[in-house]
Amino acid sequence: MKEINRHRLISVFFGAFYGIFGALGFFCLGNLYVMAVFHESHRYPNLYPFCMYFGIVSFFCCFGALCGNVQYLCNRKRKSDESGNSGFGIGLLIEIAVMILLFVGGSVILDILYNLAAHK
């Protein structure tokens, strides 16, 4: 596999990871915030622990991915400085585009699943 394609695939992987776990974390944070403001966590005996656990898990997954991404980008930048070829900007653009698409799609899917589960 070419070096450029491998870097783009890794950028897609990091963007997908941020988008999926970011959407889950945002969903959990939003629900926990509303439950805390209105003091209604007792009305949602299943949703409250789900949001607590998976919100924490998604935070640590995003933080771990961020650390891995920074290390990968620093190593890639160092290697591109030595070899003279760069593709640093296109990788970041791919990562941001994939992250936004999967964040929006994941948020919509989580909302649909929540509404289906809430109305049963």
Q: Could you please describe the fold and organization of this structure?
A:
With 120 residues, this protein is mainly α. The chain is built from 3 helices and no strands. Helices cover 86% and strands 0% of the residues. The model has no long low-confidence stretch (mean pLDDT 89).
Note the overall shape. Answer: elongated
Radius of gyration: 18 Å
- The total beta strand count reads 0
Kindly estimate the percentage of residues that lie in beta strands according to DSSP: under 5%
Q: What is the overall number of helices?
A: 3
DSSP helix fraction: over 70%
Low-confidence stretches: none
The main sheet comes to: none
Name the descriptors:
120 residues; elongated
Which SSEs are present, and which pair or pack?
Elements: H1 3-37, H2 47-83, H3 88-118
Helix pairs in contact: 1-2, 1-3
